[in-house]
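User: Fold this; tokens only.

Assistant: Input:
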Amino acid sequence: MLVTLKEICEIADKRGIGVGAFNVPNLESLTAALEAAEELNAPVILSHAEAHDELIPIEIIGPIMIKMAKKASVPVCVHLDHGVSFEECMKALHIGFTSVMIDASAYDYEENIKQTAKVVEIAHAMGASVEAELGHILKFEAESSKEGVTQNDVNPEECYTDPDTAKDFVERTNVDALAIAFGTAHGIYVTKPVLDLDRITAIKEKIDIPFVMHGGSGVSKEEFKIAIRNGIRKINYYTYMALAGAEEVEKLLDEKQPEEKVQFHDIALAGKAGMKENIKEAIKIFLME
């Protein structure tokens, strides 16, 4: 069942849970996420990151995501993750995405508001939801992604989202969900992050909209649960599910006999199985089990 981000966050609010947003840059990750959600009867968000266009263009994977979401037995939002340009957000909306993230956090505050408000106006007219980002999500791994800043660039405290600024931002943009910075990071953790979980509550006291956790990989089970109790509703999750898929492929190759030939479809199926189990583990945490 295809729904918007606003609708899926309303479900999460009523149940007091978080909803996983899984980047799906191939059919294996897409089917892994959907099957995991359906087996657990959990709402789910299927995301395409603009940075993953180099893996598979949104014009190809987007319509497949939407078609499979419509056929699913659970609520599914199809979301553009980290759309850094107005053009990419418009492309996703015209394809049929029910939610887009306009990430103008690299610009100054007033420009972030200007770009976000413009996307919100159009998306709402098309019946879609919008997520924006305020603050900076750290990046703990050198990678091709354009998301975040590295841990060496700035003092993490300077990146955290300010509650009063968040209130002003939401009121001036009418955004549906806000990605807030409180110490999480994109990529593989090389050092344990210092999470300011109380900051979520402080922001929630100013504005009552769904909050988004970016950089969910590597966060402990208890930290996830505290964040959800404090107001996080959407949780972005990709790196560790991708690693789990790769580990299952490595296991397959390590265990094969010398005379055995491994075909590519064997690798694809092993990767899917590894990702699916990891996604199910994450969803169970987000369901507060």
